[in-house]
Amino acid sequence: MLADHSLRSRCPAADQVSYEDLYARWEQGHWRASEIDFSVDREDWQQKFTELERRAALWTYSMFLHGEDAVANALSPYIDAAPRQEQKYFLATQQVDEARHAVLFGRFMREVAGTGENLPAALEATLPELTWGFRKVFARLDRMAGELRRDRSKPKLAQAIALYHLVIEATLAQAGQHFIEESLTRRSLLPGLREGIGNVSRDEQRHIAFGVKMIADLVREDPDCEAAIEELLREILPFATAVFVPPDWDERYVTCFGFTLEQLYAYGAEAIEGRLRAAGIEPLQLRVGLPFDFSPVERAERGLTLLRAGYLGGPGGHVEPDPQATAMLFDGLRRQLDPAIAPGARIQWEFTDAEPWHLRIDNGETSVAAGRLEHPDLVFRCRFDDWLDLAAGRIDPLRALLLGRIRPSGSLRMLARARKLFA
User: Fold this and answer.
1) Is the dihedral of CA 77, 314, 321, 381 positive or negative?
2) Cβ-based neighbour number of residue 246 at 10 Å
3) In angstroms, rounded to a whole number, what is the distance separating the alpha carbons of residues 242 and 316?
4) Cα 92 to Cα 96, 97, 99, 287, distances in angstroms
5) Which CATH number applies to 325-422: 3.30.9.100, 3.30.420.10, 3.30.1050.10, 3.40.630.30?
6) From 334's CA, which of 139, 289, 369, 414 has a CA 20 to 30 Å away?
7) What pTM value is reported for the model?
8) What percentage of the chain carries pLDDT values higher than 70?
9) 363 pLDDT band (50/70/90 cuts)?
10) CATH number of 5-308
11) DSSP at 351
């Protein structure tokens, strides 16, 4: 669904910076990951961090180590696909930056946390720290790199930039960096890592500014780019929401450093909304399931409610239906369905172990509610857990149909039109 272009800013904030300026900032901002002094950090790690804080820090920093390594490896097809030479040059500088960031976190793991004798060993040793959401997001980045090698069209490039610069960098990495830096500064701990994180944050701000500008240019040059970004966000946001779920839902992994999951998620929610607007895309017009008419804090609370209830996130066994979370789940479906795709649709969910729900489209308005419809066009019959697995991206829609976990009946034409429900 293409957004209403009348709501797109005629002069996005991204137009206030040039690719040449961003390149110049890179030249001015050089720093050396190999020269960061971690001697005091080693003392702080052993003497001032509690055992819980060391476990929590290792969990957090491991995701940064793997994330930086992954993005450094994924950037080459971005450079090849960029249509302008100045874009290619900047992306080349970003690849250097990401490698430098991986070196920084690799050194910290070896020299401070005592994990791994070298970078490959540190990566291997910290694999168990990676969350389900992290693995899903970065698996998608890896697939995106392959897709971009085969398809260098502007819509595909727009998807790739949105995934990398808006989701991974602006929404996830920058939120994590902000709270790490704030926590360490407040307690005057790990001065070497603090210095390094400060440098990483400045690099990431430059990268995000580039991504925002490039998306603005791509959308202006090819209107199909906005629909492509919308499609990508629908796919990736359930996984991104689950990246910071702590081990065994032990929220002390976050609160021991003086902040909450709600604060972390609200920071990310505000970041993606702001960057979309800076690129000239109105979030309220995107059908991605997110309530952009809510505040970032409210969106954060909503995401965490769905995660804590087991509606989003990795597989965890049977999920007991929760009325509040169920209402949020179906409201998200309502928000991502374009009424123009299936005008007049009446869709029923019949769960074997939960109350039924339905969706209807009347006069261009989509509504959802508990209960049954008379004469629905399409009925989905399944266990509630199976529908949750589909909604959370824990099972492929086609596989769910082939295995009989989701059993549709009624209008095949309506089933085809309702495919956006599974995006």
Assistant:
1) positive
2) 16
3) 13
4) 7, 9, 11, 33
5) 3.30.1050.10
6) 139
7) 0.94
8) 96
9) confident
10) 1.10.620.20
11) E
